[in-house]
Amino acid sequence: MAGQSVRWGILATGGIAAAFTADLVDLPDAELVAVASRSGESARAFAERFGIPRAYGDWEALANDEDIDVVYVATPHSAHRAAAGLCLEAGRNVLCEKPFTLNLREAEELVELARGRGRFLMEAMWMYCNPLIRRLKALVDDGAIGEVRTVQADFGLAGHLLPEARNGELPPAHRLRNPALGGGALLDLGVYPVSFAQLLLGEPSDVTARATLSPEGVDLQTGALLSFGCGALASVHCSIVGGTSVSASVTGSRGRIDIPSGFFHPDRFVLHRDGRDPEEFAADPADGPRSSLRHEAKEVMRALRAGETESPLVPLEGTLAVMRTLDAIRERIGVRYPGEAGDLGDFGEGASYAAVS
Question: What is the pTM of this model?
């Protein structure tokens, strides 16, 4: 595939699919081949919007289209296992939106399927592909702030301000509150703070968590403390009932790094080294707008041309480790989705659990 355009299929037609496709259109080595939705009308409208030659009214047709090199799965995460699995079974490579799946069991099934078929598979954790986040990680790995002691990250939105809100809150059927759609703050938003912490510290050895639950049984807000074998701690928070600064901070034995806002797609961060003036690192204007998803698309295409079946920037073992942590948090706060009994793992005795309904 070296030197060739990479041919993309888009599975689903929602907001994130549109944002990702808009970035693909601007990449000269990306070719948009087909889009699929369970609604033929939606697929045709999406295809017309982005100049995509083929529109399918079912997922199977897209999965079986042999002119496609890789499928971007952008369904709600409750359907990731089914959609990505269908594409992998058909021999397609897959970039699957975050959170990767509902739980670890589903994630392990997809990874096993991809490895068994020799297909490329990657979670669309675009934060890991962001040049500024990569620069931050390199500084931390090089000892710029000494040994990491704490990581703090939050991601909260004011659900009552979303267009879909009714009478000051999101309706129970909304995807963020619907258990059948994997609703709640943790999987939709909390995956970013958890992934940020684990990018820098690896997988935690212990998890403590508390949450406020909705009447439907999903988390409206969750706070978790992650403990690591090196002695470091990470404090992560997510919410769909209040907008937060969406900031992050990494403190080490000889300094800290602050991302003042939008930590998962930053336009700048500040390095504070003990005894030295602060240093600001800003995004390269050539990298595109702050919301750019093109970096993960470029990484997928680079990996496919190199014949790789996973990305070193977003390795599958790292994705599985994040899913283990998300499962552990949900076990502690008492959030389970339909048909999930017995699926969630446990980090052992002594974990704190509290849920306020």
Answer: 0.94
